[in-house]
Amino acid sequence: MSHHLIPDLMLPISDNPMPAGLLMGKFFQTALLILFLLLFAGCGFQKQVSFSGKTMGTTYHITVVTGFFKNTKSLKDKIDMRLEEINKSMSTYRKDSEISRFNALKQTGKKFYISDDFFNVMTVAQNIYKLTGEAWDGTVEPLVTLWGFGNSENKKRIPTPSEIDALLTDIGFNNIEISANHYLVKRKAFISLDFASIAKGYGVDQIAALIRTNQIKNFLVEIGGEVFAAGFRKDGKKWKIGINRPKKNAPFDQIYKVLYLQDKGFATSGDYRNYFECEGKRFSHILDPRNGYPINNGVVSVSIVADTCTFADGLATAVMVLGHKKGLELVNNLDNTECLIVVQADDGTLTDYYSRGLISKRNE
Fold it and tell me: Which tops the pLDDT comparison, 297 or 16?
């Protein structure tokens, strides 16, 4: 805690000095007033300020806890500017974005130079791709579109095996060379990227970093359900995060489980709202990039707690693909990473699978 230097109190000199008792009373009143103001302006009183807005095709909500006299008026403008930068880099809805220009490039061997933001996400994405045995893959978007879950007007349908096999030849994160000199090279001309399952997490981390540069230590950042919680709430307790009930018709505000976070990223992936049914079968929007088909392992929700929201965001999708047994095994072998995996049986009942470190923390 910083020390506050209080200057010597200058008392007026008068030809008719005040009685000693009255003089001492004035002295203590002034000293108490100064002490009160220092406490008030310093750590004695906190205020909570919230911001919200739209970004990345969804909404964001941010809460900061800071000193009472801290000016936070310019913070929202800085947040919106930073999110706009990230959108310009990674939005597939913008034809002039970095990712759209990379996808439009149909040439192998050519260097495509990228921004720091793009490079940072590619580095984390490559790590998750390798770590999960290719269960997460940022090049799977053509298959997503084929099944009718993408940005296009394609109707949801079951593609033929030959259609899937034809696209699988142009799927694979390993078909993109990532240079430390901040450029990418396509090894296959029709390879394309989509960061839908990792970009929001990166946005959360970048806004958290921005808030910290404004000397704010206690805050919560949420973009489209992905979260980073820093420090404590105004009441001094950990941030409380609710996980939605993973059921098709469950209200968005219906809480299934509650976790308590401090200085951690958090992300949830689920398939209980985005799927279609055909020929008596249920087809999830989450595809296994290794075979081109929707997952069919009973996992309906995966929540990940990790040091960064970027990593948590991508890993949550990967664990959906891996299933609860392989997913738990993976997470239990990762440092500073925990998970809650929810599996739905054929009769609709839900079973929770917690990673080892989360079991002792879930009821804090």
Answer: 297
